[in-house]
Automatic annotation (TrEMBL):
This is NrdH-redoxin. Residues 1-52 form the Glutaredoxin domain. InterPro entries: Glutaredoxin (IPR002109), Thioredoxin-like_sf (IPR036249). It holds the Pfam family Glutaredoxin. CDD domains: NrdH. It comes from Leucobacter rhizosphaerae. PROSITE patterns: GLUTAREDOXIN_2 (PS51354).
Amino acid sequence: MFGADWCGDCRRAKLIFDRSGAPYRYVDLVQDPEAAEVARDISGRTNIPVILYPDRSHQVEPSNADMLRKIEELGLA
């Protein structure tokens, strides 16, 4: 997951991962600004969070329901 601590959607997405028990790696774009280019390459957009899943699919600014569906689909929880 690519995001920033100042981003409300990023904090919400981290909470969804934490509450569901799904593992994730958080890349803080403030601490690692060059990673923003990686996130942009994945999504084609500059919006965050960008979530890259193990099946190589991604979501940008997903709703809670969309995240939970994907977590369940992949059996991550």
